[in-house]
């Protein structure tokens, strides 16, 4: 059978992303399965809409990898918003409030461990960083949706004053997705390096154990 | 005691049984879709296979690729003895809880 690549090739960026987030052991077999399904079943059935199907499948694979980290990021931000609006405190410039420290360290621990795990799993630093950046971006979007929902339910003058006193509307509703994603790229790097190194050491020691 | 299997896990494992030596990712996906009579995401089957492999219910090995897959290897799956035990237990449990009931069930009108 001859394959006309120009006609039956899924979007290159989607294939790249899929192969990036897969475990090294599954990279060829899973992307091959999806390509086979795309070419044999989906293109004949859907024609021009086949690419959208492929992108949806890749989004499903990516979502399975990012959701735990995204959920923790979103929950942390929403809980912080609730603390700041329901139990407001007076923030002093230059002094880190206890709740700010708890939130920051929770996010750092989440991003670092997520990056370490994905570097271990995929054996790629780049994959780990892309996953934590996507996860925190999506987590930030979920946080924005959550805080907007909370604000829609409760938006009395005291709540507005509490939001303005704790960093303003920008910090509550706009910054999380982009701001956190940028920070995750930086914070995630040490975690990714640790995960990759741990995998290399584990691989080296198990290879030596087998050959001994 | 063997692992307790979910319905989707059973569908995947029985798909592997039916496919025999041809049980690789896409073939399992097609088999599961046909048996469950619904659209199933390839990612869902892959995640289940990964979980089953972690639980040591399936083992896998790489085979050769084909042109339609751009030469990428197929991963073939087979059941482990633990999976056979778990499937038999699941079937026995289902038979036991259905025993004495007529299938399909019919909805009884509730008393007014």
Question: What does this 3D model show about the protein?
Answer:
By secondary structure, chain A is mainly α. Chain A contains 7 helices and no strands. In chain A, helix 1 packs across helix 3 and helix 5 packs antiparallel against helix 7. The model of chain A has no long low-confidence stretch (mean pLDDT 89). Chain B is an alpha+beta fold. Chain B is built from 4 helices and 2 strands. In chain B, strands 1-2 form a two-stranded antiparallel sheet. In chain B, a hairpin with a 7-residue loop joins strand 1 and strand 2. Chains A and B meet through helix 2 and helix 3 of A and helix 2, helix 3 and strand 2 of B.
What descriptors fit this protein?
A: 212 residues, 7 helices, B: 112 residues, two-stranded antiparallel sheet, 4 helices, 50% helix, globular
The major β-sheet of chain A equals: none
Helix content estimate of chain B: 40-55%
What gyration radius of chain A follows from the Cα positions, in whole Å?
22 Å
**Main sheet properties of chain B:** 2 strands, antiparallel
Fold topology:
The complex is a heterodimer of chains A (212) and B (112).
Chain A: H1 12-21, H2 27-46, H3 50-86, H4 98-122, H5 125-153, H6 157-165, H7 168-211
Helix pairs in contact in A: 1-2, 1-3, 2-3, 3-4, 3-5, 3-6, 4-5, 4-7, 5-7
Chain B: H1 7-19, H2 25-36, H3 42-54, E1 58-65, E2 73-79, H4 81-98
Question: Can you give me a brief rundown of this structure?
Answer:
Chain A is mostly helical and 212 residues long.
